[in-house]
Write a structure and sequence with these properties.
Strand content of chain A: 15-25%
Distance between the termini of chain A: 35 Å
Number of strands of chain A: 33
Low-confidence stretches of chain A: none
Oligomer: homodimer
Number of helices of chain A: 37
Shape of chain A: elongated
Radius of gyration of chain A: 34 Å
Largest sheet of chain A: 8 strands, mixed
Mean pLDDT of chain A: 92
Helix content of chain A: 40-55%
Chain lengths: 927, 927
């Protein structure tokens, strides 16, 4: 449609661009956020809703559609806007009883942005619009307060010249050396000249002089006069707000937050009210409940004779609004409750009405102008994790919200806060960041630096808390990683070895801190000029990825938190998909079960070789993989058998009554070849071979692309005896538990399959051993049912899932590998290109963190659809890292999986996500 | 259906199990191969078809259904068979005028196998059935030839005891020390005793005595008498033939040839005729055309007074049947044409009738018994490549066959024979195989052993022919590989580096010869005890994978063969899909164009760095990849630009008028890091960095799984300037040709894409450079159209092909990588597990050789379907190795691709396959 036509259309349909509010009514309401922005919609709601009708300074909102039009039409406004704004001004004038630009009884207005979603501080605001030489004089007459008026005037010039005259015009601060800085300099000069320190010490005369100086400076620097015409001021302000939607900061913020560029911002024009008109004035901000704890108590701060920005700026210590809000800092300061009991009562009453109306905790702003209360803002209040959980639980109990709403009130990241100790945010703010990395394992950790896994173990034994610092980690470091309280690596991404292991344990971890240069020889690392030696204390914030020098205090995790427990109960009532855990040890299994896991979705048999305790199993395994004949391998497997059986049995016992999916040996054998010289020598000696022969055997295991090499079921096909012994260990472990009259549900999972014949081949072995075990233990097959399934982690397996399903009883999607193969992205190597992919927006998310719904997700859908075509009751789950990612959990539910499985510390998050996806559906269906 | 029911059903429906032939009629015909086997069907055809009615000894065929029944029913026969066999015997008796078991006028019969498809020598035969003490006497009376009769008798015992009494009974030769060997020993004893050397020197009395000795020995060794009852002999023979269907040799053969186990064999019982009844008897085999050259001349051998096996056995030198068939060996021997002119005329007449009837070259067997001609067998004759091509062309010209039939008469492997020199098969037969490997590059090669690429180059410069022997090869060896006449590696599979490179050049190559142990230090290799030193001569048969010590003669390739050229013309008339080539050099392009390639489907820009000529480009490239800033990279790319442009230009010129698809840089950069110390030092010096810094930069390029690492378009995204310079080189090369008024069609192909945004990103660069080039050269866009497409080689790209197609103009399936990612099989590492997969029949074929239709093929289908949904005219091709595999070419046609592309020496095979798939369809549609 051509521009002219749009104009014609707008004229004909008389599009409403301006929505009025105030004086006990409003054109809009809270639901119109898309059109009016969050701020505008809430102002309309407060002003106009029949249950509220709160005292809101009159104003109007210019819609986001105008912003969109503005950018589509070469920064012009739609026709009709001028007239509607004019009407809006008339409305304000009539409600407030003042007149815009009137020298006798002038109306001042603010111009503020307001997007659909809050973008705090990212766009511009201009206050006090309408002041000029004439109206200032009029206002002085009215208020009898010249100091206040000139202060407002100089603030207007300061703000307007910066925002409207410089930034909005696209003038680079370099050219002007920054009008804001230059006016501030003038302010400082004035202070020096007058011999004072604080702004508040200026007299009315001082400020009047400053206004003159400012105006001169503006003309000098920007080559233009500060506009005296109130209408020019107003339209300049509106234009500046619209332009700030595409300012650098706002664009960057939208990119991070995923806010579409075409939403646009609304503009709110509202009558100014002043909390700085004397001792009968004041201003304050408050939360309807405590945002740090969730407690159902009114919580807030105020300041007498002050404007809103003074409370936030932190120059004056704010006063508590009531006794409950009193802190160390404010212990001797008067509360609003005491100082203005009537006003406090009024606000307290508004608090209750607002909570009942919005059914949530709110963040409100108010101003008292000469004893009259004005509500300036209200919006759903930000809260931390513990508070979110407590409020959700309590509001649900109060029947303020439904169970679905309760579930949706807590973001996964908020729940995560409850699971890990965190660095004290106050102290953290005061501390310089030493280095930044990727936040791989959330929470905080404080410990002394060590550089080897061995040292981590040794120091810990001696009672030290250590942080293991490595270039990157590998399976040989696992023991040290477990011993350490935190892990820091210089290389690797969010799915590197360190990140995976740490997340699995809920351990604080930062990876890929590229500024860290480690010198293993000297046992130290450097960040620019700072040298950190072995034994030095450092603190990690694994939630943010920040490293600090020294010891910062930690705030304990609230695992025992009663509200957490109750909240999880609500989630469990709502969710439908089952949640299991990926656990390889009895400890992990126990932890996960406590968190609500309903079984194990992935038990990695190979893990035992890197666990705590004896080195013996690993040594025997190494002998096995270096064997050259089946006979040798069988001998080693024989030695290994009891270790395997015991390892499996312990975890089966912990998970009594729940299914435990045990994956057969998966990694390429080369991974087990020792790197340490002493270990190699021990092996050579034990195998009684030459070093040359040892090299020959190990180099034969080496692979160019091990991820796509001889691993998973391919090992079981080449060496059926490996499968045989593993399966025997599983069945005998289970049988021994059955003999104790306990219920046990092992499920055998074959990894890395790409054709149904692989499964058939392995099942022959499995069934043979199964029959032998039943016989040996004299057990009925009902007491130990045979369940064999497969990982689906190779793209081909998805494509032929109908055939795969015909020979097995469950699918477990291994989305890590499926993402690797499906994208052709080696997880170990994405550091080379994924950053530029994300930066250039070629991928919007790291597909190893959240399932790539479009591609890998489609493969999963094909897999499930084809699989269920053959076997309608096919059990389907996921056991990749994605099983603990909330978005991915929702996807899994939507595609019809029976369960997700994730590391123990992700179990609560998975349960929450599983509940949220159902809650969203239920709420949508109700509508 | 239960056994009894089948029996009842058979009785009711009177299933025909026995088909008679002979005496001018037959129950069956040539089309009934499934039921009667090849042999039985052809005997029936010869005997019964109205155009033929040839003199075939009467007989009957027991159907393959009986064999199937036999194995399904615990080795029992269906009821009714006995009676039908009895009737069959009656038929033979009546036609031949003899009686089975009659002491006066005995009929002897042969019992032979006959499967649907020929399985030469894999199953059993028993001759002379019906002989015993009594019938022998009768036969002597009739023939007056006791020597002949006792010879036949002792042969019966020898064969029967071995085949029926030992093997068919499942007796292991170890237990009996082998009855065959033991009787042979008796024969030798007898010879010694009589002081003679040849069987023919035995007198009738000697043979009679031998019969007695044999019978005694049989009883002694097997504990059972040789059966004198002719019926027992007959049924024993039939049973032995059926049992031999599941003999070890037959089962193994079927597995290799892909013949289903449930086809079963037929059994042919036929009257014996004897070519060894005196000088008026004889026997022969012949081909209706020369099977070695294809010439339309009758070609065969015969022997007077001999049985069929004597001709084949090679004890007596066979005589030529005519002058044409006379060879060096038979130059003084009488021809059948001369000796028995009438019989020869009769056969010559039969030859013509048979060819006209069968419309193909036939292989016939005949016997002359006392002056009477009997036809014993006729079947389509085996032929070598050149003969197959010539016959196809000539028969098509003779209008004996249609163009479709002509195209189907030549197997791809036969056509391949014409493209490479081959080892003289006669000499090869006489030579011991030194080692066996995989047949990676077909044809033969003779040369002196060298162990380094450098030596290969140096020796060749000195005029030597060399064979390069390596553990495995890598890109640095390429120059030496090109210099060598053949390549032999100890490791690697059919798709290893050596195999790919050699096949691309049509060079003889054997890979993965595991028995070869190379000692680079000592410059020698060992195979068991044989030591082969540098400079020793060896011969490779790359078609079979055999290595020979010494120099074997080679037979030249028939590339200039006129029939080859004419045959390709026929193929081109029939085929519909286009055939391009994968070529990186002007030489390859020229070769492929001569073979009929209609463009280049894959030109790898990186190839120039490993080609012949200057080392300079590789050196500059290395500088580029080790650069740390864009500025440094641009500087190196500037230096590289002219090399790139000239390299591309040469090939574009050779392919004038045809499209040339140029792929942007693909391999992970680490591949280019030099391994040789001198080269590393040169780079360090030139870059003016420390060795430490060099190590740091190169180790940064190292990847754990390079195949899924930073390669392909990922390089172009991270370093857009690399794309920019490459594209500039392409367009400027093309523009320079356009300026010469020549037609040029470059197509730019982006590799390793997994999302459409990658293409969009690269296209921005490409379009910018394109516009600049048009401007610089002042060319109209019509003269140099912009065509940008992508490889589809990542599974995700198939899944989202609708989106991929929306931003590009063609897809080229990179099936090598698609197979790697789709299966999760690293091509470099499959040596560890693929052999056991093939051996255990988990995969029936190496998916890197023939497209895995079920899995990867399905991904391709999804890709094409989705792609064409967005862009119905999307051009689709393939440029993986599979483009030269005949089965895969057919698949590509069937899924609707526009073209296939393969290495130059595979072009004729691809053209043939492309024609065959159409021919098969046309013929099917006609029916």
């Amino acid at each position: 449609m051509k521009k002219e036509n749009i104009a014609v259309k707008n004229k004909l349909t008389k599009t409403k661009y301006v929505y009025l509010f105030g004086g006990g009514k409003a054109d809009g309401n809270e639901k119109m956020k898309d059109l009016l922005g969050g701020k505008g919609a809430n102002l309309a709601e407060m002003a106009g809703h029949r249950d509220l009708k709160l005292p809101v300074p009159a104003g109007f909102t210019i819609t986001t559609e105008v912003c969109t039009y503005f950018y589509k039409n070469n920064k012009k406004y739609p026709s009709g806007l001028k007239e509607q704004v004019q009407k809006g001004l008339k409305h304000i004038e009539s409600v407030m009883g003042r007149k815009f630009g009137d020298p006798e009884n002038p109306l001042l207005v603010s111009v503020r942005s307001g997007a659909r979603r809050s973008m705090p501080g990212m766009m511009e605001t201009v206050l006090n619009i309408g002041l000029n030489e004439k109206t200032a004089e009029g206002l002085i007459k009215q208020t009898n307060n010249p100091r206040f008026v000139y202060d407002a005037y100089r603030r207007l010039i300061q703000m307007y010249s910066d925002v409207v005259m410089e930034k909005a015009e696209g003038i680079e601060p370099q050219e002007t050396k920054g009008i804001r800085q230059q006016l501030e300099k003038e302010l400082e000069n004035m202070k020096q000249k007058k011999g004072i320190k604080l702004d508040t010490e200026f007299t009315a005369e001082d400020l009047k002089e400053l206004v003159k100086i400012y105006k001169r400076k503006v003309k000098e620097v920007l080559g233009k006069e500060f506009p005296e015409d109130p209408y020019e001021q107003l339209w300049g302000g509106i234009r500046a707000v619209f332009l700030s939607w595409n300012g650098k900061r706002a664009v960057a913020y939208r990119k991070i937050e995923g806010i579409p560029d075409d939403w646009g911002t609304a503009v709110n024009v509202q009558a100014m009210v002043f909390g700085n008109m004397g001792d009968d004035s004041g201003t304050g901000v408050a939360f309807t409940r405590n945002p740090a704890t969730g407690e159902d108590k009114f919580y807030g701060e105020w300041l007498p004779n002050a404007q809103g920005e003074d409370v936030v700026a932190g120059i004056r210590t704010p006063y508590p609004i009531n006794e409950y809000s009193r802190s160390e800092h404010s212990k001797d300061l008067p509360s609003l409750e005491k100082q203005f009991p009537k006003i406090y009562q009024q606000i307290e009453d508004i608090r209750k009405r607002l909570e009942k109306h919005y059914r949530d905790m709110l963040d409100i702003e108010f101003t008292i102008e000469k004893g009259k209360l004005w509500m300036l803002q209200c919006r759903v209040g930000k809260r931390n994790g513990p508070a979110a959980v407590r409020m959700a639980v309590e509001m649900y109990k109060e029947k303020l919200i439904s169970q679905e709403e309760a579930v949706l009130r807590v973001a996964p990241s908020q729940l995560d806060e409850l699971l890990h100790p965190v660095v004290d945010p106050v102290k953290e703010k005061e501390t310089k960041v030493l280095a930044k990395g990727l936040p791989a394992g959330p929470g905080g950790a404080v410990g002394r630096v060590v550089f080897t896994a061995n040292d981590a173990v040794e120091w810990t034994k001696k009672g030290e808390q250590v942080i293991l610092v490595r270039e990157e980690t590998n399976p040989e470091d696992v023991e040290g990683m477990r011993a350490a309280v935190g892990i820091l690596t210089a290389r690797g991404g969010m799915t590197s070895h360190a990140a995976l292991v740490a997340r699995g344990w809920g351990k604080c971890c930062i990876v890929g801190a590229g500024d860290i240069h480690i010198d293993y020889e000297e046992k130290r690392f450097k960040v620019k000029d700072t040298v950190v030696k072995e034994g030095d204390w450092i603190t990690l914030n694994g939630t943010k990825g920040n490293v600090y020098l020294g010891r910062l205090p930690l705030i304990k995790a609230a695992e025992e938190n009663l509200f957490f427990v109750e909240f999880m109960k609500i989630c469990n009532k709502v969710r439908k998909i089952s949640v299991r855990t990926n656990a390889d040890t009895p400890q992990d299994a126990k932890k996960a079960r406590a968190f609500g896991a309903e079984g194990i979705g992935l038990f990695r048999t190979e893990h035992m070789f890197y666990g705590e305790g004896s080195d013996e199993p690993l040594f025997i395994l190494r002998k096995m993989i270096l064997s050259t004949t089946e006979e040798e391998r069988r001998k080693a497997l024989d030695e290994l058998f009891n270790y395997m059986k015991e390892d499996i049995k312990k975890t089966l016992e912990v998970m009594e009554g729940f299914p435990v999916t045990i994956r057969l040996l998966d990694p390429p054998l080369h991974e087990f070849v020792p790197k340490r010289k002493d270990e190699r020598e021990k092996l050579i000696e034990n195998l009684a071979i030459t070093e040359e022969e040892f090299e020959k055997r190990t180099s034969k295991l080496h692979e160019v692309n091990p991820m796509m090499g001889h691993r998973g079921v391919r090992l079981g096909i080449a060496y059926p005896e490996i499968t045989e012994y593993q399966v025997k260990a599983i069945f005998e472990a289970a049988a021994e538990i059955v003999k104790q009259n306990k219920k046990v549900l092992p499920e055998i999972m074959i990894p890395v399959t790409s054709t149904e014949k692989e499964i058939v081949h392995q099942k022959q072995i499995i069934e043979k051993v199964y029959q032998e075990t039943l016989k040996k233990f004299n057990i009925d097959r009902k007491k130990l049912p045979l369940v064999v399934g497969t990982m689906i982690e190779i793209p081909r397996a998805c494509i032929i899932a109908d055939k795969m399903a015909s020979v097995c009883e469950f699918f477990s999607f291994g989305t890590n590998d499926l993402t690797q193969m499906g994208f052709g992205f080696s997880r170990d190597d994405i550091g080379g290109f994924l950053p530029s992919y994300l930066e250039k927006n070629i991928l919007s998310k790291d597909p190893f963190q959240t399932i790539d719904f479009e591609g890998i997700g489609e493969l999963i859908k094909i897999g499930i659809t084809k699989g269920r075509k053959t076997k309608p009751n096919l059990k389907v789950g996921i056991c990749g890292e994605h099983g603990g990612d909330p978005e991915s959990v929702k996807f899994c539910y939507n595609v019809g999986m029976n369960y997700v499985s994730c590391s123990p510390y992700r179990v609560p998050l998975a349960i929450l996500a599983a509940a949220q996806v159902v809650a969203e559906k239920n709420i949508k269906n109700k509508k």
